[in-house]
Amino acid sequence: MQGQESQSAELPGPVCARTGEADGETVARFAELIVRFAANVQPGQIVAISTEPGKLELTRAVAERAYQAGAKFVDVLQFDLHVKRSRILHAAEDTLDYVPPWYGERMLALGEHRAARVALTGPSMPGLLSDLDPVRAGRDQLPFLRESAQVVNARTTNWTAVPCPTQPWAQFVYPDLEPDAALARLWENVLHICRLDEDDPVAAWQARQDTLAGVAERLTGHRFDGLHFEGPGTDLRVGLLPSSRWISARFETVDGIVHMPNLPSEEVFTTPDPRRVDGFVRSTKPLVAGGTIIRGLRARFEGGRAVSIEADAGGELLAQYARRDAGACRLGEVALVDGEGRIGPLETVFYDTLIDENAASHVALGSAYEFTVEEQDFDAINRSQIHIDFMIGAPEVDVTGLTANGERVPVLRDGAWQI
C-alpha cells in the first residue's frame, strides 16, 4: 500500500490490515535506514541495487533515498528466478555454468568506482527450483558471482543486504494465515528485527553493534586454537588460524566508509583454518541455496573436507555445489550468535539465509573473509567460487573454545555468552 492511503482511522499502524503491505511512510523510513545507515551511501557515489520481481516498491524507495543522499547514478539489476528455472530445464548441459563475462566485469567495476551496493533479499519465489535435477541446478549458481568475494575482500564498496517482504515469501513462512494476514505478519517481523519499531533505529543498532564488538574483542583476546560445537547430531571441531580475528558486522571500506553489510546482523564471525575441521554436524534450520530448500542437512568433515553431505530434502544440490572447486568442500567462515538478538525469540524459520543465520551460530562452505586474518595467514584461508552459510547453532548446542595447550573454555551455553 502506497502513499498516505494506509494512514486512515480504519487502518492504523505501519502495516495495512486490508492488504498486508507496509504503508508508504514505513517503506520510506526503511529505505532511509538502508541508504543512510546500513549502506551509508556517500554523495557522488554510484549505487547498485540487486532486486527481484515483487520488490518494486522498496527498490524504488531505496533508489529515491539514494538520489536524495547525493548518488551520482542508481543502477538497478533484477534477477528473475523463473528465467533461471527455464535455463535449468532446457539449456544444454555444458552451458549451465556459463556466466556472461560482463556480469563479473560489472561487479569488479563497482569496486573500481568505489560504488555502494544494496541487495534486497528474501525468497520471492520459494522452492521454485526444488523439483529440478540437482546436478543440473548445481551447475548454475547465479545470481552469485565469484567476483563478489574479491570485491568484499578488497573492501572497495560499502554494501548491505536487507530483507524485502513479498506475498509468496509471506505465505511460505506463515502457511496457516490468509495471504494478506501473512504478508502483514512478515512485514511486522521484518520491521521488528531491523529495529524499525524503535524511535531511533540507528541508535538501537549502534548499541547492539557496540555489544557485539565487545564480544568479538574478547573472543580475539582468548586466541583460541579452535572451537568445539556439541549438541544433538553435532560433534564438530573447527580449527582457527593463528591470526584469526573476530569481528561483528560493522565494516569499513579502504576509504573509511563505515557500513553494515547485513541488516539485521546479530553475529560475530571469523575465518577458520580450512585444513582443521573434523567431526559431524546437523543443521538446526533449513536453508535456501540456489532457489532450492534444503532440509535436515547433515555433514561429516575429515581433515577439513566435507566428505559427506546428506539431507532429508535438497542435499544433492549442496553436495553438487561442494564439488565446484577445491575449496567448495571446506569452511570459509565460522560465526557465533547469542540469544539476545531479536530473531531467535520469534521461533520462526524465515527461509532467508540473511535472517536465519542471525538467529543461530553457523558455518559457511567456500570463500573466506580475508580481512579477518593478518597478512601472514592470507595464503592459508579458503578460496572458492561459492559461499554458502548453514545454521548449526541452537540453545542446546554448546560452543567451547579450545586453547593450544588443551584447555576448554565455555563460550556459549544455552545461548548466553560465557566469556
Estimate the helix proportion, in percent: 25-40%
Outline the biggest β-sheet: 8 strands, antiparallel
Number of strands: 21
Terminus-to-terminus distance: 46 Å
Cα Rg: 21 Å
Strand numbers in spatial order across the main sheet = 15-14-11-6-5-19-20-21
How many domains? The number is 2
Number of helical regions:
11
Measured by DSSP, the beta-strand proportion falls in 25-35%
User: Spans of 5+ residues with little confidence (pLDDT < 50)?
Assistant: 1-12
What is the overall shape? Answer: globular
Assign the structural class, choosing from mainly alpha, mainly beta, alpha/beta, alpha+beta, or little secondary structure: alpha+beta
* Rounded mean pLDDT score: 93
Sum up the structure in keywords.
about 25% strand, about 425 residues, 11 helices, single chain, 2 domains, five-stranded antiparallel β-sheet, alpha+beta
Describe the structure.
This protein is an alpha+beta fold and about 425 residues long. The chain folds into 2 domains: about 25-165, Thermophilic metalloprotease-like (3-Layer(aba) Sandwich), CATH 3.40.1830.10; about 210-415, no CATH class. The protein has 11 helices and 21 strands. It has helices spanning about 25-40, 55-70, 80-90, 100-110, 135-140, 145-155, 165-175, 180-195, 200-220, 315-320, 355, and strands spanning about 45-50, 75-80, 115-120, 160-165, 225-230, 235-240, 245-250, 250, 260, 265-270, 270-280, 285-290, 290-295, 300, 305-310, 330-335, 360-365, 385-390, 400, 410-415, 415. The strands form 5 sheets. It has an 8-stranded antiparallel sheet with strand order 15-14-11-6-5-19-20-21. Strands 7-10-16-17-18 form a 5-stranded antiparallel sheet, with helices on one face. The longest helix is centred in the middle third of the chain and has 22 residues, at about 200-220. It is globular and about 55 Å long. The relative contact order is 0.13. Mean pLDDT is about 95; it is low at about 1-10.
